[in-house]
Specification:
This protein is α/β, with parallel strands linked by helices. The chain contains ten helices and twelve strands. It binds adenosine-5'-triphosphate and magnesium ion (MG).
């Protein structure tokens, strides 16, 4: 530890120094005989304790003290003032300017040593504290860095989970799209044939118009064309065609609308999660969108029943809530498909309002979840599916979305061989 003694009297400097040496105080002693010299030393090396005389020519002790405290780095150096008992006013001023302690002049060795020892102890604590704070600061920075990396990993995992889910859905979705595209294509072909027939008839009508405008043409000839048109009407089945066109166009529109909806749902699901996706949405609409993706997976083997009540708009992130619904529904479908069963599997989706929350229950009559693992299903990477079939992230991500990102709840009840019910509870925010 470095102790700097500042006094304009050489005798005082040496006397103080000797007392320290005689009492074997473990320190390095530096001497300065003016405020200016003291400030130079303090600015050029790290000093732990300063003993500062108040009365000095040029820059006195109080001015020197003010200069020391001006610099933030020297804020905590203990500064002990050297003062005579009569110097009460100067002493008070010193404390106002940041002095730590005082020592009476003339120096009384026992008092001097005990004050120095106390200052050294405080300094030691301070240095320890500084070091601890530094370590905490470094650790904190490391933690922040780690947290950032974890967030990046988490968002990567969420996206990966989605891609896997899309992979699982791909065949079904392709089929779901193929079907309407098939009949839109067939309708278009039929419409092409109809248009050819209509054109043929129109050409005949044109011929009739031309004849009617031509005065040289006899009415017998005109009568012949009229008969031809009437024959065309029968042979080409024009009456039927006119009725069928409306149906074909309407049917094709419906098909295209269905494809658009499926593609839109897929896009909504697959897109990167954006903060701006938080808005007021129709929850039943989100459910329908998800069902469009799941339906084909369930077709012919699972009966899906909806029991939806009218709901207020819900403030949520549509991509995230869509992801939760899809994962819970896909889990139910996969659980039902894993069974060899005689009867049709059953999934019931209900949505209702209670206690200022929207409740959504997804119930299945599948194999259920064994009591021994039900506490683990929300853990990341927990899966009972075969390697490659499930990542075990679906429910942990869903839990994070519902509980942490939407201040809601995600609950599960299950009975082996009877089925499972997941309940999502989301708070309703008033639109202001
Ligand atoms: N409806 C359900 N019926 C029976 N078991 C279920 C049901 N839902 C979830 N589970 C169990 O919970 C486990 C964890 O589900 P989670 O969705 O987190 O992962 P996963 O479906 O296995 O894989 P991933 O969703 O990543 O493809 C499942 O492996 C399954 O054992
Ligand atoms: Mg899953």
């Amino acid at each position: 530890m470095k102790i700097l003694i500042v006094d304009d009297t050489r005798f005082n400097l040496e006397y103080a120094k000797n007392i320290l040496i005689e009492n074997k105080i473990d320190c390095h002693i530096l001497l300065a005989n003016s405020g200016k010299e003291a400030l130079n030393i303090i600015n050029s090396e790290e000093i732990d304790i300063v003993i500062l005389d108040i009365v000095m020519p040029e820059i006195d002790g109080i001015e020197t003290l003010k200069e020391i405290r001006k610099n933030k780095v020297h804020h905590n150096i203990p500064v002990i003032m050297f003062t005579s008992i009569t110097d009460k006013q100067a002493l008070q001023k010193s404390f106002e300017c940041g002095a730590t302690d005082f020592i009476n002049k003339p120096i009384e060795p026992i008092e001097f040593i005990s004050r120095i020892k106390a200052a050294m102890r405080i300094r030691k604590y301070e240095l320890n504290l500084k070091e601890t704070l530094n370590t905490i600061k470094i650790q904190n920075e490391e933690l922040l860095d780690l947290n950032k990396k974890l967030q990046e990993t988490q968002s990567y995992l969420v996206q990966k989970e989605k891609l896997i889910a899309i992979g699982q859905l791909a065949a079904g979705v392709a089929h779901e799209i193929n079907n309407p595209i098939g009949y839109v294509s067939s309708n278009t072909q039929t419409l092409g044939k109809y248009i050819y027939k209509i054109k043929t008839t129109i050409y005949k009508y044109r011929e009739l118009m031309d004849c009617l405008n031509d005065t040289n043409i006899e009415s017998k000839e005109i009568q012949g064309i009229i008969e031809e048109i009437s024959e065309l009407r029968n042979t080409l089945g024009l009456d039927f065609i006119i009725g069928d066109i409306d149906y074909l166009i309407d049917d094709s529109f419906k098909g295209i609308e269905k494809v658009t909806k499926i593609v839109q749902s897929l896009r909504n699901f697959a897109r990167h999660d954006l903060k701006s996706d938080f808005n007021y949405y129709d929850f039943n609409h989100l459910l329908d969108e998800t069902l469009l993706l799941v339906n084909n997976e369930a077709k012919h083997i699972i009966h899906i029943e909806k029991d939806l009540q009218e709901l207020p708009l819900i403030y949520c992130n549509r991509t995230q809530i869509g992801q939760v619904l899809l994962n819970i529904m896909m889990n139910a479908v996969q659980a039902l498909k894993s069974q060899t069963r005689e009867d049709e599997g059953f999934i019931k989706i209900s949505a209702y309002v209670s206690e200022n929350h929207i409740f959504c229950e997804i119930m299945d009559n599948g194999p259920g979840i064994d009591e021994s693992i039900i506490n683990k299903i929300f853990n990341p990477f927990f899966t009972t599916k075969e390697i490659g079939a499930g990542t075990g992230l679906g429910l942990s991500i869903s839990y994070d979305i519902v509980v942490n990102k939407h201040s809601g709840q995600l609950l599960v009840t299950s009975k082996t061989n009877e089925g499972t019910t997941f309940t999502m509870k989301l708070p309703i925010k008033k639109i202001t």
